[in-house]
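Hey,
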Amino acid sequence: MKTFLFVANRGFALTSSRLGIFKSLKRSGHNVVVCVGLDAHVEKLQELGITVEEISVDRGGLSALRDVHLFIRLAKLYRKWKPAVIHNFHAKPIVFGALASLVVPRAKVVNNFEGLGFPFVSKGVMYRLSLIAFKIALYRSSQNVFLNYDDLDLFLSKGIVSSSKATLVFSPGVDVEKFRPSKEKELASINVVMAGRLLWSKGVKEFCFAAKEIKKDHPEVRFLIAGEWDLHHSDSIDKKSLQSLVDKCGVEFLGYVNDMPALLDETYCFVLPTKYREGVPRVVLEAQSSGVPVITTNVPGCRHAVIDGQTGYIVEPGDHKSLSQSIDRLIISRELRKEFSENAIARATSQFDTKIVTEKQLDVYRELGFSIIS
């Protein structure tokens, strides 16, 4: 029996679309250990018989004391479990997890890049430091999984990874059974929805400005933001600023929403006007799988998740005028929404289904010499 050890920021990151991987590993007779920040989703992992080890990952940027503590904690866990495979998700687990893996030199190290985030938007000092950190850490890697073409091309062009140690598994996957359209019905209101972490770079301001513009001619349209606070992040939105913005623009703030399928079931179009360097935003895939047209931006991780003019629209980041025009086209045209909806469902089913993505992830382990049952 081999031990596969997974490292991620928190439980949600692994329960949202990776449970199929864990189930296959367990069926194949392997032991699964997950090292995550504890949250409400950890219980799902434990119900599968997965061992959960608590770690603390500061997602807000560099924090010398906490980052050193993370490194030491991971090194101790690696010595304890002596894993055959260490699979890291997100920036800090990748960097510190890969470095800590030196204590188990025989372990295969796999890294999943879920999006490069804020440092790769600003391209300042943190961008340069991140490139150096990744180059050092990935020297130890056996394989690196990228979710979009842009991140893969960047790491290849900078010489951070070689082509033999880089693979593309487009999207984290979406549960097409959970996120599926209900029977066509007349909605009680015209809802335009944005969902995501409450960071300025996610395009909250642009969404609100677009709402204000559209409400001049369509006061009946409801603009809703569903979001999770991330107050430790350097780009976080404070509660007072958000309240002022939504009040000024006539937007409703829902807070964190547990039941996204229900919300998407009442949505005319979904909007993610991000400037953030995404992996592939899971919520964009969930919306399309639910038959909701999506408007997003021409940034890594988003530009390939939506087909412009077929499943939704792509606009330039920061351009709230183009954003409002695209929203306007969708809310006034039932035929256009229906066409985009049908295209989005077909694409989600054929390309983004969690079962398809899970099989591609399992192939990474197989290529490293491990026997895995689907």
